[in-house]
UniProtKB/TrEMBL annotation:
Protein name as annotated: Ribonuclease HII
Gene Ontology MF terms: RNA-DNA hybrid ribonuclease activity
RNase H type-2 domain span: 10-200
Organism of derivation: Mucilaginibacter ximonensis
Gene that specifies this protein: rnhB
PANTHER family: RIBONUCLEASE H2 SUBUNIT A, RIBONUCLEASE HII
Binding site for a divalent metal cation: D16, E17, D108
NCBIfam families assigned: PRK00015.1-3
Length: 202
């Protein structure tokens, strides 16, 4: 069972991101404040949960959370400030969108840029340890998936409705054949092996 709180004195929000390792699309982030008595035996890191269950959990999180918000940084911002800083920026934006401002943040991972004067703690694999971070991972993942499915209709040859912008072989080969779209991250290298040769897209 995941833990409800990192600390018990301050109003706490969990934060996580989705799409950090993709070749296309924004990085999404969510911030979630859950009730003190929130429990859920199925809630876990979004990567460990089937897609249909993620959407079921999203509805429950949105219904039961004290506050939640989702935000993103687009591919141009990622190229400008790098993916790590863009992930932090997306989290900052999610926290700012909360209608109730938290007094403490718990962040999935081992690094974070402090947001204003809100104290925080970084938790490695926090999305499998704390309910609020797991909830944030569910929201960030499902909202990003929805976005990628939407823009997939504009560029069906990249198979985003299936790969969600991640660097599958089909996606990388499509970049080689068709070039970049306005949604691609130009600062990410794209390569694959074919017939024993390394093919790289510059």
């Amino acid at each position: 069972m995941l833990l409800a709180r990192y600390q018990h004195e301050l109003l706490e929000a969990g934060c996580d991101e989705a799409g950090r390792g993709c070749l296309a699309g924004p990085v999404f982030a969510a911030a979630v404040i859950l009730p003190h008595d929130f429990e859920h035996e199925l809630l876990n890191d979004s990567k460990q949960i089937a897609e249909d269950l993620r959407y079921t959990l999203r509805a429950e999180i949105e219904e039961r959370a004290i506050a939640y918000a989702v935000a993103w940084a687009d591919n141009m911002e990622i190229d400008e400030i790098n993916i790590l800083n863009a992930s932090f920026l997306a989290m900052h934006r999610a926290v700012e969108k909360l209608h109730l401002q938290p007094e403490f943040l718990i962040i999935d991972g081992n690094r974070f840029n402090k947001h204003h004067k809100i104290p925080h703690a970084c938790v490695v694999k926090g999305d499998s340890k704390y309910l609020s971070i797991a909830a944030a991972s569910i929201l960030a993942k499902t909202y990003r998936d929805d976005y990628m499915k939407q823009i997939a209709a504009e560029h069906p040859e990249y198979d985003w409705h299936n790969n969600k912008g991640y660097g599958t072989l089909k996606h990388r080969k499509s970049i080689l054949k068709n070039g970049y779209t306005p949604y691609h991250r130009r600062s990410f290298s794209v390569s694959f092996e074919e017939d024993g040769l390394l093919v790289q897209v510059l």
